[in-house]
Amino acid sequence: AGPSPETTAAPPKKFPKGVVLGKDGKPCRSCTSFADWASQTKKTVKGGTANPTATAGPPSDCPPDVEQLGRSSWTLLHSIAATYPVSPTPTEQNQARQFMGLFSKLYPCWVCAEDFQEFMTRSQVRVESREEFGQWMCEAHNEVNKKLGKKEFDCSKWEERWRTGWKD
Ligand code: FAD
Prior knowledge:
Layout: H1 5-8, H2 34-38, H3 66-82, H4 90-106, H5 110-122, H6 130-147, H7 158-164
Helix pairs in contact: 3-6, 3-7, 4-5
The site of flavin-adenine dinucleotide has 22 residues, from helix 3, helix 5, helix 6 and helix 7.
């Protein structure tokens, strides 16, 4: 048998700064911001000139970039914590633990997933109550905020942000 396609592939192309490669050596869309993604392609996006939305997110009917994926995922995660039982049964606690473990393994941005798994080994998910789960989720999100140089969120406000709405 001849060499596999991997061994005959062209030498790796140089990609612009910010473009994260997937484990297949190709640019990973869900690991890269749309602005960085757009800088490596001259493709015309639907309805306009080349890369007119380079500073915004991807068009709504395109695959998500790392930011859109992140915002949607945090919305789901915090909403799960917000609707988690106040006093969960052992079965519900197991389900929440399992869900977070699988989520951290299946998250589509592999660099994000690896760091998140590492965080979860340092700071085990707390699922004993809604309050604990919501606080832990807030701390997990803050860990990513810190890594990205973003402002940390005040975790005493997680429930107002994700369950009850602001008190005014
Ligand atoms: P987001 O950070 O998405 O937050 C959405 C909203 O949540 C905010 O507007 C705010 O109202 C609220 N919020 C913010 N912080 C908290 C908090 N601590 N608790 C409760 N609510 C809060 N991106 C990368 O570039 N690199 C990574 O390695 C990476 N890892 C990620 C790992 C995971 C598990 C997830 C889900 C996302 C990851 N992201 C990563 C995406 C990143 O966290 C952001 O989602 C993305 O940069 C968009 O940020 P944003 O400023 O729009 O708001």
